[in-house]
Write a structure and sequence with these properties.
The chain has a single domain (3-286), classed as Jelly Rolls (Sandwich). It is built from no helices and 17 strands. It has strands at 3-4, 24-25, 95-97, 113-117, 119-124, 134-139, 144-150, 161-172, 178-184, 191-197, 201-206, 211-218, 224-232, 237-242, 245-246, 261-268, 277-286. Strands 3, 5, 6, 8, 13, 14, 15 and 17 form an eight-stranded antiparallel beta sheet that branches. The chain has a seven-stranded antiparallel beta sheet with strand order 4-7-16-9-10-11-12, with no helix packed on it. The relative contact order is 0.26.
Amino acid sequence: MTFRRAWLVSLTTLTLVALWSCSSDDSTNQLTNSGSQNGANDGDRSSSNEGPTSGDSSTTNEGGNTNPNDGGADSSDSGKGNDSGPQAGCTGAKVCDDFESYAKGGLPTSPWTTQVASASMAIDDSKAYDGTKSVHITTNGGGAMAVMVQEAPLLPMSGNNVYGRFMMFYNVMPTTHYHLVILNGPGDNGQMTMGGLENSKALFNFGPGDNTAVSNAKYPQGKWACIQWQFDGPNKTAVMSIDGVQLENKVTNWQAFDIAKLSVGLLNCCDDGPKVDMWLDAIAIDDAAVACP
């Protein structure tokens, strides 16, 4: 199996269209695992929740290991939330954002900064898991970036052990190498990403070098899915779950760094691929596991 190499110097340089190149690299250290665990279940989930709980980000708008899941999720193929369902399920987390507090059509603001290139990102009310709004991301096809960024004062966290969760709805999903969560160390040194490869098989991609841990499980399409993760710096591990099921592509040899930047959204590295159409909602980041809503 040949993986497409996907590393860059820093996210800030991506505003100059320095998107990840995609060239074949037979020397890639492949940690590919077999087996598929992708338990998406149908069901309606919708509600409103309080706005962001984290403080302001200090940047400008430029451009023991444990299972991260301590609660399952019912995914939903319903398009728009209402006020009758459960809450977003992250009250008390350091970041708990259902995007209800932002203006329709605009970008998410504090506690986020945003970086967008060859893509569109906007607060949208056509589809939501929780409440009436979510973040809608579309691309023009091929290489693109649309991410929401957290740095200080949220990061680095005490213990350097970061958990997160979001609800994701793919209408049209990427088919090449892409990233949904991107971690960087101080000064953008060091990198660990979580994303997809080969028609959205779940993937960790980390350095130094170009190491990959690929699952046979794929992200769901056409319904809401709960995506959870844990990046444990002291134990050099990373794990992810889809709809409450921990995947088999656990990373155990990550040369961890102090996590100083965390970006959530879409970074599509390659020049080919479809025009992606996706939504994110109910994002949570904390120093403890956050259950699916």
